[in-house]
Amino acid sequence: MTELKNQIILSDNNRHVDFLPFSYTRPIGDLRVGILTIKEKYEILGAEVIGFDTESYLSHKFGYNIDTILPIIVVDGAIIPTLDFLNYLSELPDNTVLKNSDGDFIAFKGFPDSVYEFLKEKDTSHSIVQTYKNELKLIQHIWDLFSFLEKEIKSDFKLITSGRESAPIDSSNIVKGAENIFIEPGAIVFASVLNATSGPIYIGKDAEVMEGCLIRGGFALGNHAQLKMGTKIYGPTSIGPECRIGGEVNNSLFYGYSNKGHDGFIGNSVIGEWCNIGADSNNSNLKNNYEEVKLWNYSKKSFIKTGLQFCGLFMGDHTKCGINTMFNTGTVTGVSANIFGAGFPRNYIPSFAWGGASGFTTYHIDKAFETAQKVMHRRGKELNEVEKDILSHIYKVTLMEGNF
User: Fold this and answer.
1) Alpha-carbon distance 219 to 201, whole Å?
2) Top-tier CATH class for 144-401
3) Which end of the chain has the least Cβ crowding within 10 Å, N or C?
4) Which residues, at least 6 apart from 120, have a Cβ–Cβ distance to it below 8 Å?
């Protein structure tokens, strides 16, 4: 791997609203795409990410601290880095803006004073302008988070496992494509079927695959995560750290610390952190008439075409649903919603909504804090004041929008 001399700041680059509800609680550069977050991809490639240029209410948790006399590179956080791209950035002259062939911002390189000025004013009129003509990997929509899974799991698998040796696979398992399977130290995989012929399988440190699981790659199970007995996984699927997953999952991404511990189907979906999906809950990922799926867009405040026939559920952090919840094709839920009851709730559910198909009221912030504290405590985490401030900001914004 290369080692850049420059430090990196990942910028939302005015794209923050494009990745709601997931960017409500994190910068774009901290989104998980594949096995790794975008930030983690930079770091494993040899760069040093010193923070994020993001929304002010997120800056106390995700800001930046410039403590260097060396040049710094501000990069569009939606770009998925490659080694070639990082090497190109490292060769940029100082005080240079890098744009693509359409004139869109890619990066700015400068010394700390000029970087501070750029981050404050976004004025590049006195800078050198250079055009990047090579192809970029760039996420643009929330559905890219599952659409990119196949390629990104394969790419991240190579980054993580290069030059390393997997822990042995227990003989109780049925294995196909063993050369594409990597098991980290402390992981337990017992009496399951691992088929890595169509994509790699990565099992993180101290993760557990209980007996009877059926896994078809590409697949990643994060550190300390768990597949319950008899879980069926269709790749490409990526499960973040500390998740508890059961039932049937197809082409989906789970962020960390979320639970889907029982039977039920989740497909072509993205599930945020600290979510809980009740037993026998399901989402539709295909319309009955096989038409293109439309999805709620926070910027336009309306539903937009995705160009996808298969598109499922997008659930923001801290959202929960009760047993037997049914989600329509292309449903978006905000942060810290609590969904329950019979019937299909609507396709867009605001943050801090309480209810279901019969209607929603407001999930009061104090009650939401109580639940979040209990949930996080079970994983050895605490709901600190910084986290509360972020959730409080989302709560206020949601109330002002009056979506209930």
Assistant:
1) 5
2) mainly beta
3) N
4) none
Other C-beta atoms lying within 10 Å of the C-beta of residue 58: 22
Architecture field, domain 7-138: Alpha-Beta Complex (3.90)
Which part of the chain has CATH 3.90.550.10? 7-138
As a dihedral over the C-alpha atoms of residue 94, residue 26, residue 134, residue 47, rounded to 10 degrees, the angle is: 50
Specify whether the CB–CB gap between 275 and 258 falls below 8 A. yes
Print pLDDT tens along the chain (404 aa). Answer: 445 457 999 999 999 999 999 999 999 999 999 999 999 999 999 999 999 999 999 999 998 988 878 889 999 999 999 999 999 999 999 999 999 999 999 999 999 888 988 888 877 777 899 999 999 999 999 999 999 999 999 999 999 999 999 999 999 999 999 999 999 999 999 999 999 999 999 999 999 999 999 999 999 999 999 999 999 999 999 999 999 999 999 999 999 999 999 999 999 999 999 999 999 999 999 999 999 999 999 999 999 999 999 999 999 999 999 999 999 999 999 999 999 999 999 999 999 999 999 999 999 999 999 999 999 999 999 999 999 999 999 999 999 887 66
Query: What is the rounded CA–CA span in Å between residue 376 and residue 383?
Result: 7
Place of tokens 């569009």: 76
Tokens at 206, concatenated: 């101290």
Q: Could you give the C-alpha distances from 208 to 26, 113, 186, 198, 380, in angstroms and in order?
A: 27, 48, 9, 22, 18
What Rg do the C-alpha atoms of the chain give, in angstroms?
21
CA proximity to 249, closest of 166, 149, 349: 149
Strand order across the 128-131 sheet: 48-53, 7-11, 72-76, 105-110, 96-99, 128-131
Strands (E), 54-152: 72-76, 79-80, 96-99, 105-110, 128-131, 137-138
Phi/psi at 395 (5° precision): -60, -45
> What stretch(es) of the chain map to CATH 2.160.10.10?
144-401
The partner residues of 202 in beta bridges, in order of sequence, read 182, 220
Q: How far is CA 404 from CA 347, 354, 397, in A?
A: 13, 9, 13
